[in-house]
Amino acid sequence: MLKKTLFQLHWFLGITAGLILSLMGVTGAIYSYDQQILKWINQDSYTVQVPAQQVKLTPSQLYQTLVSKDPSLEINSITVVNEADASSIINIKKEGERRGLNLMVNPYDASILPSIKGREFLQFIQQLHRNLTFGPIGKQITAACTLMLIYFVLSGLYLRWPKKHSLKQWFAIKPKLKGRNFIWDLHAVVGTWVVLFYLVFAVTGLYWSYDWWRDGMFKVLGVERPQQMQAPAVGLKPENAQGQNRTLNGEKANETQGQNRTPRGEKPEQTANKAVMTAPQIESALSQTWQGFNQQYKNGYSSITFNVPKINNGKIEFSFVDADIPHERARNSASYNYTTDRIDNLKLYSDKKLNDKIMSSMLPVHRGSFFGPVWQFIAMLASLAMPLFFITGIMLYLKRRKQKKLTQLAKTHTSTMIPSNQDNTPAWLIIYASQTGVSEQLAWRTATSLQEAKQTTNVKSIQHLTLDDLKNHNQILYVVSTYGTGDAPDVAVSFSKKIMSQTLDLSHVKSAVLALGSKEYFETYCSFGHQIADWLNHSGATQLFSTIEVDDGCLEDIEKWNQQLAKITQFDLQSIQLTEKTFDLWTLNQRKLLNPKSLGQPAYHLELTTQADITWQAGDIAVIQPMNSDHRISAFIDQHKLGTLNTEQRLALKNKDLTNTPVNNDFEQLITALKPLPSREYSIASIPKQQHLQLVVRLAQAQNGEYGLGSGWLCQYAQLHEHIELRIRTNEAFHLIDDNRPVLMIGNGTGIAGLLSLLQQRQDLGYTENWLIWGERQKTCDHFYQQQLENWQKSGLLTHLDLVFSRDQADCKYVQDQLIHSADLVQKWVEQGAVIYVCGSVHGMATGVDQALKEILGETLLDELREHGRYRRDVY
Questions:
Q1: Is the CA virtual torsion 825, 829, 830, 835 positive or negative?
Q2: Domains of the chain in sequence order
């Protein structure tokens, strides 16, 4: 429940705040390199030609030259950059410019260079980043989204943590994944890459958002907070926190512009009586300070900024950045007493403790330059990646919503009427009978195709079909599957007994049947569909067209259905297709023989894992794509005299059906003619929380010694750590109830797999009213999962455990016999609301259990249980 709640909040906040965070990420990435961008587009302003045999003008000479050209010029500060081709920066007082105006000046002749272009654009980017250009309201929005970013990071890690463990699984993108799996992998893996960056962005960005957050940072890092601080708005890459102008390297040019500045340590009234300095005095003070600094400070500098003094108090304040600059805010500050020719109040950045460096360099920490240029570049890429999570999150949300909608329609056994066009076209009633969900899916897709042609449709599960439905519709389509050895799906049993047994007048009905089955069961292929067609014929219904058979979801067969519908409706219907059956790559990690020395065929416990984000529910099915063994491929090559094939050609034969193949010596034509091997299905014995998918597979072997297609591949030919192509098929008819009603589980042989998953889920939910009846041959050889079952019995998860070993008795008894023996208890459990699950072989066991339950409960009650989802089967 906690994970579900966290996930719901994660996606909800993601689709609401994701767009704003995306905008903040892109603008932050741009603004993090604002000075580099300005320098790139203003090279004529930031760099100059270095004259031969000429040195840069000193700050005093720059001041003298500029003031002599324009005596009205009020200079606030002078910045000199050590690089030979770097321009100097003069900050002057200008009406309307609160921080003054920066002039780029040639340091060799004091000529004014071109004005900086692009500042307005970067200021707009900055405002977008900080407050979406909406002022205080925008600031609150970006601040709230930044808090959400912290939640996204932490909840994303928690949601992903139980699923993956290896570094490759956590950090490697899997390009071979398709569809939703690839989108999720991109979202999760890239999200893991940027976790640290986003936490730094958010924690430091909130420094400018909330006073309580800023105070907390000072307290946590043990740094005394300055008395006066300005707090620009939140953002991933905010502007200079103190509002200082920046030079070529991004350092502070002047902190207060120098106008009417109160000297450090003096009160305003003390400075009021000080004499205002004349231009010659300023030139002399700057000259002394420049010479004194270079003589007394031997570590060099990258850039230095002198605040031009206005009051004659004997001091000039300046700041400078060392030659080996760690980042753009690693500033040193000092004052120079030109009356004593000494540097006073020298405060070096390098002398600060780490916590003090962090709190005094919040912007470099925020944008990443604090940790060096490589980190800053990666941080910029991480910031640019922000839209990726919004886009992939929206895509996952839409796919999840679409699937949820389809699932909801499938679960809702009520009519969904779509208003028809204005000419009162009769509605189509589309009835589906599905055991595994394929028929249901085709029914809804048929409805969609007809609705797109402005037809009214009404889709119903066959178990909810009434006589009134048949009387009130004159256009009925049946999409039905055949289950087991020619049986109707469980949901259709009631329809078969109650409606098909009646003699009805359906002469007003025009109908057609789409019958699903598998030719592997040739004797009963599509038999239930044909039973419905015969019943409709005997009831007087008009056949729209002959029954169409679909072999194992064959798209060509489905297209015939669509073509026939288009022909009789005279509409251009869209193609109807099943959801693409995409197999994921799983790794076979473990294979263990469960029944050594058994009288029966070997049974194996298999464990598989995948790097894809795939989940399933207890009761679902693993669909395996088998492969041919190397021996089988070699025999085929010899049989058709194909000569020596290269590795790629042999791999092309790996998943092809090599039986009943046309004789053709041209390899390319032969490959085209070969059909893929049919897939095989196995009940899943585990739940996702166990970190791997478990199967229980019986190795089938024919009299000629040939192994079964799927079991031979899984149990004999596939090597450990080899890739297995596998996909999950939702088996809703066998899903576990989500409440604490009692559960009676019955099975035999490898059918224990499906029951194990149900028990694992019941254990996870904390529901202990569970009764397992399971049978095999001999206790000494065939007691699958003995230790686990005994532990569950001791812990109380299994209220009752009845094991039936048929060969350990004089007269063979089976699970159905045990049911009869426990008839009173079975009745009691059913009266208490118990749900019955049966998993295993349809031959003998499932049929015998069904008959035993009829004897115990009565056929009417059993049909009611089936109809209300209290009698569920997964038999094969």
A1: negative
A2: 12-43+119-241+362-398 (no CATH), 58-108+267-353 (no CATH), 412-569 (3.40.50.360), 584-729 (2.40.30.10), 732-875 (3.40.50.80)
